[in-house]
Design goal:
This is Methylenetetrahydrofolate reductase. By secondary structure, the chain is α/β, with parallel strands linked by helices. It has a single domain, classed as Alpha-Beta Barrel (TIM Barrel), CATH 3.20.20. The protein has twelve helices and eight strands. Bound molecules: flavin-adenine dinucleotide.
């Protein structure tokens, strides 16, 4: 089922994100992860796409096929474009068509000097137009409650987001954020700008300090004071940080649901225990 049809049936929706494991052995264990995640009945599971043509890209499509055909859950395939030619993107779209996979998260991809850029696509909106011309896919896009790290300012970033939805994006997933007020303010501005598609809130539980520091340095998300203090308090106690991080994520989601968020997208980091604990905390509200 296309994701825009799921939104027509129910709101809020719940979705998970996983990444293709880099190591061969971990790839073999992906079934365990998928089995546990599927028991939590998400509306869809998205699979990230390795940057710059790394070997994980093939496994993105393979894992998405498993999600659809072995676990009967809708997959959303992430697809980046700046390191690819139109012919290479066509090849992936053909694989998706053959596998009856209908949902794509169209992304530009991060600019990384390690991976040469190709000239066929500059922005995610170019990929959106290309996919629209190619065939019958439901296209999602990324959005940034605290602005994309390269954007000059919020208004410009939102105007660029509008181009993406004008070109055919029918659902957005936000970058991770820890301060719900930033998400609410972004939502208001985006609606005023005429972006009317459903927006899912991207939630990343803080369960590992190194991991979260890395994510924040990459995407520029800000840490509210209470969360910063919580991390400082538990940074040398993994179990306590895990529990406090899950509790913070549950509270964040509860507040979003009270504010009528259209969807919750959990960056599971391939950890079904994290997803399960959060789901147990929020299920009565969904
Ligand atoms: P765009 O929408 O193209 O925006 C990029 C920048 O260009 C922004 O600053 C924007 O304001 C500007 N811009 C856009 N259009 C125009 C225009 N027409 N004129 C001028 N400026 C413009 N990366 C991966 O490699 N693999 C993944 O699987 C992956 N999954 C992600 C999932 C989510 C939910 C999110 C939020 C991000 C994900 N990313 C992933 C990261 C993403 O690739 C980066 O954030 C990337 O830097 C921007 O991608 P985008 O699609 O948002 O780009």
């Amino acid at each position: 089922m296309k994701i825009d049809s799921i939104f027509k049936k129910k709101k809020p929706i719940l979705s998970f994100e996983i990444f293709p494991p880099k190591k061969e052995i971990a790839l073999l264990n992906i079934d365990e992860t998928l089995k546990s995640l599927s028991e939590l009945n998400p509306d869809f599971i998205s699979v990230t796409f390795g940057a710059g043509g790394t070997t994980t890209n093939n496994s993105t499509v393979e894992i998405a096929k498993k999600i659809k055909h072995e676990y009967n859950i809708e997959p959303l395939v992430h697809l980046t474009c700046i390191n690819y030619s139109k012919a290479e993107i066509c090849d992936i779209l053909e694989q998706l068509n053959d596998a009856e996979i209908k949902n794509i998260l169209a992304l530009r991809g991060d600019i990384n000097p390690e991976f040469p850029r190709k000239n066929d696509f500059t922005y995610a909106s170019d990929l959106v137009s290309f996919i629209k011309q190619y065939g019958d896919f439901c296209i999602s896009g990324a959005c940034y409650p605290e602005s994309h790290i390269e954007a000059k300012n919020v208004s410009e970033d939102i105007l660029n987001l509008k181009k993406k939805t004008d070109n055919g994006v029918s659902h957005l997933i936000s970058q991770l954020f820890f301060d719900n007020n930033l998400f609410y303010s972004f939502n208001n501005k985006v609606r005023v700008a005429g972006v009317n598609v459903p927006i899912e809130a991207g939630i990343m539980p803080v369960i590992n300090k190194t991991q979260i520091d890395k994510m924040i340095s990459l995407c520029g998300a800000s840490l509210p004071t209470d969360l910063r203090k919580m991390i400082q308090k538990h940074e040398n106690n993994c179990d306590a940080l895990f529990d406090a991080g899950i509790e913070y994520a549950i509270d964040q989601i509860k507040d979003l649901l009270e504010h009528d968020v259209e969807g919750i997208h959990i960056f599971t980091m391939n950890n079904p225990i994290v997803a399960r604990k959060i789901c147990e905390g929020i299920r009565p509200l969904l």
